[in-house]
Amino acid sequence: MFEEYDVKTLGLFYISKLITFYAGFYGCFILHHAFAVPVVVSAATVGLLGSFIPYTSRFKRHPQAAVYAGAFAGMCSQDIIQTQSEIITVSLVGAFIYTLLRNVFVGIGGKLGAIAFTAVASVVLVKGLVL
Fold this sequence. Notes:
By secondary structure, the protein is mainly α. It is built from 5 helices and no strands.
């Protein structure tokens, strides 16, 4: 089920997912909240721009997919995610979940949205439990 990756390759995979998930999240979040672009248009724009990221055969199209998953997460309300540290935390969790599920549910719709929802919901849940 899972492709075998050595630790170095898996680390590079996670770092690339973290960077691209964060870019997608932050791009969508800023377009919507700072520039008042409708949230669906923000996510679509970020997803379109993310599709132009060059990729290697080693990671297939995972960087582009991670940008789109980040854009889905970036569609959340500013009342839920308020600080830069929360954006980074959601990105860390989202990239981790994406890395875990990299070869699960292949070809089944909803995986990217589910990753985004789980990342945001887990950060909100922990924030609610701590505060």
